[in-house]
Every structure is written in structure tokens, then in C-alpha cells.
Write a structure and sequence with these properties.
The chain is mainly α. It has twelve helices and no strands.
Amino acid sequence: MTGQPFSFSANRRIVAGLLVNLLSSICIVFINKWIYVHYGFPNMTLTLVHFVVTWLGLYVCQKMDVFSPKRLPLRRIAWLALSFCGFVAFTNLSLQNNSIGTYQLAKAMTTPVIILIQTTYYKKTFSTKIKLTLVPITLGVILNSYYDVRFNLLGTVFATLGVLVTSLYQVWVGAKQHELQVNSMQLLFYQAPLSSAFLLGVIPVFEPLTGDGGIFGPWSLPALVTVLFSGVVAFLVNLSIYWIIGNTSAVTYNMFGHFKFCITLVGGYLLFHDPLSLNQALGILCTLAGILSYTHLKLVEQEEGKSRLAQRP
């Protein structure tokens, strides 16, 4: 009986982590889109703000004894830090150059790519039924992209790069936490400033530093407040991503992520008047069918695994 309260407590923490991620992830999409549409704030600079605020948030948490830092060799997390830069930058560029619907649906392709990476390089196995759920997900994304009236080549390139880098990043997050024996906060505490340093060296090449559109440009007070607020929300997003992947898996996090796109699509339609054709709606329903199928099969597999363990002498 002692294991039952522990299991219940662990499940409550996972649910709380998922809820924080749900609210913060939906919020960050709308805030960032608002910043791009109404203020024209530069993309990479916004990403840097997110990194810096994330590290400051972790520093405060460390001072409040929420976690204890663990010394990590920087060379062991360098690729993770680079992939973090690509993950945030390319997803923001995809959001900037696509409708919210296309941006969100393109992210659904992260799950098939993660499964491919884990099967090929980490020798992880998935049942045939689980793999088949990827068919309606992929078909739905293709349908939406093909019939999106705002389809553009640049947006598609950014969305594709975003999917590839995000998939690598999410696989590495889980792998590094286990490999280095650290929790989400300990890993992010070192990785966020390293990612900031990488990005700081690139920003002057791609974005102006002064004048209109530059980081030191004449920004209004509402613009600066909104950017800082987006940084705080980004801190919650980044922390909850690490925590969820470390306590579940990259694939489970992704499938939960697909649930968020329904709310995001409705918000995009209402707030930014993103057009939605009948064929796009069919693509969304197709993707949803794949997500629900995956969730159902995963739950069945987990129950079967528990039953086999219980039957052992």
C-alpha cells in the first residue's frame, strides 16, 4: 500500500506540470504573434530575451533553494545548447511567417521525426499500431499546408527546419538528463546562458542593433513590457518542457503538445482572423484522429505492462 500514495503524488505532479505547460505554451504563441504583428520586434533578439529571462528565473529559484546547481562540463551540453537556439529561433520564425494554424500543425510532424530518431539511433522500439497513428497525423498536416491560403515557401522552410531541430532537441533533453544524472532545473541552469552566448554572437550579423527594428531602437513602453512578459512566460514554457520530458518521454510530451494546437487554432482564428478553409478543417480533424488514437494505444500498452508486472511471481 505504500507505493499507492507515492504514485498518486507523482501523477499529481505530472498533471500540474502538464497544466503549466498547456497554459504557458498557448499564451506564448499569442504573445509572440502579437509582438511580431503589432511591434515588429526582431525575432532573434526576442529569442535572446527569452533565454536571459529563463536563466534569471532559474537564478532566483536557486537562491530560494528550489534546486541545487550541479557542475556540468560545458562540452557535454554544447550541442544541446545549439539545438535549443535552433528550436526557439526556427519555431519563432515559423510563427512569424505562417498563419497560427499552419505553424501549430507543422509542429505535429515533430512526433514522427522523434520516433524515427529514437528508433534509428537509440534503438527504441514502438509497436506497429503506434507507428500507424502517425499516418493520419502526417496526412492532416499535409492537407492543411496544401490548402492554406497563406502558404509561402519561406514559412515552409522555417517550419521544416523547426521540426528537425526541435525533434533533436527534445530527444537530447531526455537523454542528457539521464546521462548526466541531473534534473530539469540543473540542466537548464547551465544550458540557458550557453545558448544565450551562442545567440549573442549571431544576432549582429542578422539583425540591426540600433534604429528602427534594432534591439536598442526607439521601442515604446508597451512594447518593452510585452517583450519582458513574453520572457517570463517563456521561462515557464522552457522549465515545464524539461520537467515533463524528464518525468515522462519526448513522445508523450509531443502528443500532449498536439492537444494544445486545437485551442491555439481557435485563438488564431478569433484574435488574428486567420482564414480556415473546409479542407484545412478536414486536415485538423485527421490530425486529431491520429493524436487520439496514439493516446488510447499508449494507455492500453501501459495498462498491459502493469498487468504483466503484477502477474510475475
